[in-house]
């Protein structure tokens, strides 16, 4: 039996000039701006909820990230993951270069009585932090949209 996957109806390039990044999303996903004081947006395929979504948020840090900061960033990332209720971490990965420091994880956790699946990636360069979260309302919904999540996660552009 083949798994059903979401089908593309088109792609849209979302450019956040103030945030300094761009990403490609399915053209039929709606955009929900973040509340005042936060730089980013939430994108969802659903008209009435955003439990399944792709979130991009840019933060400007009060310092330049260097290789000496990796251990403390790793500890903070781990603490954030561990703070989720009933979290089970499937995988973790790091990509550390002179320019970029990227921490990511795939996990499931409990929220509002549901078992949710999430892929989180946080990238640091200079004084910037870009937090990307692909989340399924449940594990089945994540699997259904996983191809679209992957495409969006892998086509981030720094502008």
- Major sheet details: 7 strands, antiparallel
Which class of secondary structure composition applies to the elements?
alpha+beta
* Main sheet strand line-up: 3-4-5-9-8-7-6
How many domains, as an integer?
Answer: 1
CATH architecture label: 3-Layer(aba) Sandwich
**CATH fold-level label:** Protein Transport Mog1p, Chain A
Give the ordered list of helices and strands: EEEEEHEEEEHE
Show unreliable segments: none
The CATH fourth-level homologous superfamily: Mog1/PsbP, alpha/beta/alpha sandwich
Query: Can you tell me the overall shape?
Result: globular
Q: Would you count the extended β strands for me?
A: 10
Number of helices: 2
| Overall CATH class | Alpha Beta
Portion of residues in helices? 10-25%
Explain this structure to me?
This protein has a seven-stranded antiparallel beta sheet with strand order 3-4-5-9-8-7-6, sandwiched between helices. The chain has a three-stranded antiparallel beta sheet with strand order 1-2-10. The relative contact order is 0.20. The radius of gyration is 16 Å and the shape is globular. Helices cover 18% and strands 46% of the residues. The longest helix is centred in the last third of the chain and has 16 residues, at 139-154. The protein has a single domain, classed as Protein Transport Mog1p, Chain A (3-Layer(aba) Sandwich). The protein has 159 residues and is α+β, with helices and mostly antiparallel strands. It contains two helices and ten strands; from the N terminus they run βββββαββββαβ.
């Amino acid at each position: 039996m083949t798994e059903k996957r979401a089908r593309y109806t088109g792609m849209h390039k979302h450019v956040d000039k103030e945030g300094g990044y761009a990403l490609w999303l399915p053209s039929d996903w709606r955009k929900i701006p973040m509340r005042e004081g936060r730089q980013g947006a939430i994108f969802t395929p659903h008209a009435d909820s955003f439990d399944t979504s792709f979130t991009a948020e840019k933060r400007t840090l009060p310092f330049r990230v260097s290789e000496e900061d990796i251990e403390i960033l790793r500890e903070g990332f781990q603490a954030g993951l561990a703070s989720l209720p009933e979290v089970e971490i499937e995988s973790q990965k790091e990509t550390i270069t002179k320019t970029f420091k990227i921490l990511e994880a795939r996990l499931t956790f409990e929220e509002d009585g549901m078992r949710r699946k999430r892929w989180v990636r946080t990238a640091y360069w200079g004084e910037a932090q870009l937090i990307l979260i692909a989340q399924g309302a449940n594990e089945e919904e994540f699997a259904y949209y996983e191809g679209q999540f992957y495409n969006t996660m892998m086509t981030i552009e720094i502008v």
